[in-house]
Amino acid sequence: MAKRFAAIWFRHLMTDWKTRRQPELYGIPFVIATPERGRMVVKAVSRAAEKAGIGTGMVVADCRTIFPSLIVLDTIEITESDLLQLIAEWSLRYTPTVAVDLPDGLILDISGCAHLWGGEHQYLNDIITKFHKLGYDATAAIADTIGAAWAISRYGHTPSIIEPGGQVDALYPLPPASLRLEPHTLQRLNKLGLYRISSFIKMPRSALSRRFGQALLSRLDQAFGQEAEFINPIRPAQPYQERLPSLEPVRTAPGIEIALKTLLETICKRLAKEGKGLRTSTFKGYRIDGNIQQIEIGTNRPSRDIEHLYKLFEIKIPDLPPDLGFELFLLEATTVEDISPEQEKLWNTSCNNNDTDIAKLLDRISGKMGKDTIHRYLPNEHYWPERSVKVASSYDEKSPIPWQTNLPRPISLLNRPEAIEVTVPIPDYPPMLFRYKGQLHNITKADGPERIEPEWWIEAGQQRDYYCVEDEQGARYWIFRLGLYGNTEPKWFIHGFFA
Amino acid sequence: MIERFAKKDIIDKLQKEVLSLQGYRTSRGNERTNTGLGPIENAFPGKSLPTGVVHEFISPTTEDAAATAAFITCLLGSLTKENNKCLWVGTKRTLFPPGLSAFGIHPENVIFIDLFRQKDVLWTIEEALKCNALSAVVGEIKELSFTESRRLQLAVEQSGVTGFIHRTLPRFENTVACVTRWKIKTMPGISIDGMPGLGFPSWKVGLEKVRNGKPGEWQVQWSNGRFRYIIGQKTLISETPVRKIG
User: Fold this and answer.
1) Whose CA is closest to B129, among B27, B52, B210?
2) Is the minimum CB–CB distance between B71 and chain A shorter than 8 Å?
3) In this structure, are residues A243 and A328 in contact, taking their beta carbons and an 8 Å threshold?
4) Which carries the bigger pLDDT value, residue B138 or residue A394?
5) How far apart, in whole angstroms, are the C-alpha atoms of residue B228 and residue B217?
């Protein structure tokens, strides 16, 4: 079957991307510039700026003289190759073979694909309109060879489709730059007055080779289809997903367990090959009545230990009602992370083995009880008791600051301070007695006060004066007065118990 | 004389055999953990705090619960070696992590599991006790039946993890299969030389039941990271380390 290629050219790739991100830039002349040899050089030009006469490679200062209100952006969050890679992945809907053509294009091998859109015209139109809707100024052409498609998309009338075998006629009137030549070859051709391909195509090959090098001949042959050219198609990331269809509907727990084990083995094999471990995973069962049942697990550390993962799923297998039976099982690793080789090596030593065992235990607990049940605390730089701890985000997280030990803190803290009735000498003494939950406590000893202010930049409120007090039984409490004696009567609260 | 010593040896040996038959082990790998409990340790068989077993603590009041939590933390501190983790399982937890560091443990080495149902707490404690990578497991639970406590005991016999069950305001003080039953009560602190302020935390440590040991009651003070004994109104170990100032 004859090969057909499509070349897509994004005239304003980076600026169009920026406009998509910041719609307020639409229709406004702006350029993206980077410093080069001590001056700002334009790297990408928006459509409006191009109309104003600004081109790439110009110095920003020069552009400003042409167009004083020009907006200059000096940072762009994405590189061209990354952006083209993303667009190429999106373009996989048109053909399975897509290649990135740096700096601003894509090459699609469309052999045998166009008829699915009802012909090449509709196919090309679909591509162009989709890109226009996305905000990209794209032009495209279809031809027998990559070289011809490239040349027409940049220098010909677009969108155009070169009929099979028609590339010779189509390329004749185009400038030599359409052959993807080196700048110095182009310069030499220009100097000799060879402004069109037609003006030198009839020259003897040996003369062309001698004067302009073998590269010109090779590019000509590639464009006209006498020499094969290959593209390097992108490889999209394979999702970590495994399927297992069953011949007969599976209705029993052992059947589901066998399916799960088989799927885990294949997925873990792949993870081991790529040096990764899974953090979250979903196991889906497709029932014959069209219903989909699923269970999910998560791990505290990336893991590819079949036994361990199986145990996590095993707890949840009873949540899969089979009814009439499952006909297809699907296991997907939704989050995958790298396992560093040291980590694996250290697993054999006793210390780290401990950590993995604990991580497995925590996985099982969080699998059964829910994720938000496990907490580990680290110090936080606040004096306000409720804010003095923060929940550690991971099992291994370490705190850059040490725990405060110079101020007394109770061993048990009430979730919210509870109001108490007190008898207290004013203005600044601890209470003589207080009543908490209907019981009277005579205070014999007291320490304090320790004044803690609410941080005004976080919340407004009155300060607390904390006292540590001991009653006759030796029970110790952390009580505080909210506010000061003055116009209003301050309230007293109990906030915790000391040992 | 020699005969008497020989007899004592034989008795000691037999006693150890009986203990091992009863499923009692001193600790993992025969190493003694230094808990610094001093005279209290004489109450235990083998003269050291049994590890790899389940201890039961009963607190009749909320104030006692705070004292008990602190006492358990002190024991955890001696059981937990460098960066080993321990688990604290419970419902409606009030334990405040910054308060732990005063009792000899790094709060970041404690992993808290906060659950809602008693049944879940028991499941978690049992699972945790089976994991021998942990140094200790503390479970806060209100009621514990004999059957449940036996399950926990069976779990620790396999793994050798020490379990502390803390029961606050239980309805009954029923018989359980734990090796010990402790009751820690608050006690007025003793101020040194009439100095104002609270002084160091002091507790009445009651060991109500201990398998193959002698129950008793002691008055204990926690100061500068160690236990001190109070006899009369004076601390037994009174040589407080002289602090350099300036």
Assistant:
1) B52
2) yes
3) yes
4) B138
5) 14
Q: Which domain holds residue B134?
A: 51-216
3-state helix, strand, coil in chain A (%, to 5): 35, 30, 35
Interface test with A, best of B28, B96, B123 (most A CBs within 10 A): B96
CATH for B99 = 3.40.50.300
pLDDT at B238 over 70: no
Tell me how many helices (H) and strands (E) chain A has: 14, 20
Tell me the residue type at A41: V
* Residue A123 scores a pLDDT above 60: yes
| pLDDT per position as a tens digit, A268-315 | 888 888 888 888 899 999 998 888 888 988 887 788 888 888 888 888
- Taking CA–CA distances from A446, the nearest residue in chain B reads B197
- On whether residue B241 sits in a domain, the answer given is no
Q: Which CATH number fits domain A253-359: 3.30.1490.100, 3.30.920.30, 1.20.1250.20, 3.40.50.2300?
A: 3.30.1490.100
The helix or strand, by DSSP H or E, that contains position A9, with its residue range, turns out to be strand A5-10
Nearest to A499 among B69, B114, B199 (CB): B69
Instruction: Please judge whether A412 and B123 are an interchain contact, meaning their C-beta atoms are less than 8 angstroms apart.
Output: no
Residue ranges, comma separated, of all CATH 3.30.1490.100 domains in chain A are 253-359
Residue A347, pLDDT score: 45
- Given a contact cutoff of 8 angstroms between Cβ atoms, the answer to whether B99 and A410 are in contact is yes
- Which residue in chain A is spatially nearest to B188 when comparing CA positions? A474
Range of weakest confidence among A8-12, A345-349, A432-436, B152-156: A345-349
Of B84, B108, B127, the CB nearest to A376: B108
- Pairing type for strands B136-140 and B162-168 reads parallel
pLDDT tier at B33, thresholds 50, 70, 90: low
Fold observed for domain A1-236: Alpha-Beta Plaits (3.30.70)
Are the C-beta atoms of A491 and A419 separated by less than 8 Å?
Answer: yes
The number of folded domains in chain B is: 1
- For the stretch A354-394, pLDDT in tens is 777 888 888 888 888 887 888 889 998 888 998 899 888 77
From residue A413, alpha-carbon distances to A21, A427, B137, B149 in Å are 48, 26, 21, 29
pLDDT digits (tens, 9 = 90+) for A449-476: 899 998 888 888 888 999 999 998 889 9
Distance from CA of B175 to the nearest CA of A (A): 27
**pLDDT cut 90: percent of chain A above it:** 13
The number of C-alpha atoms within 13 Å of B79 and in the hemisphere containing its C-beta is 29
User: What is the SS3 assignment for A376?
Assistant: strand
In chain A, which segments carry CATH 3.30.70.270? 1-236
ipTM: 0.84
pLDDT per residue as tens digits for the range A231-274: 888 877 778 888 899 888 888 889 999 999 999 999 988 888 88
Q: Do B96 and A413 touch (CB under 8 A)?
A: yes
Distances A99 to A228, A230, A292 between C-alpha atoms, Å: 16, 10, 37
Alpha carbon distances (Å) from A493 to A198, A480, B64 = 95, 5, 20
Amino acid occupying residue B112: F
User: Residue ranges of the alpha helices (H) in A278-392?
Assistant: 306-316, 341-346, 350-369
- Within 10 angstroms of residue A89's Cβ, the number of other Cβ atoms is 14
Q: Does residue B171 belong to any structural domain of this protein?
A: yes
What stretches of A88-175 adopt beta strand conformation (E)?
Answer: 97-101, 105-109, 138-143, 160-161
User: How much is the average pLDDT of A318-345?
Assistant: 80
B18 inside domain: no
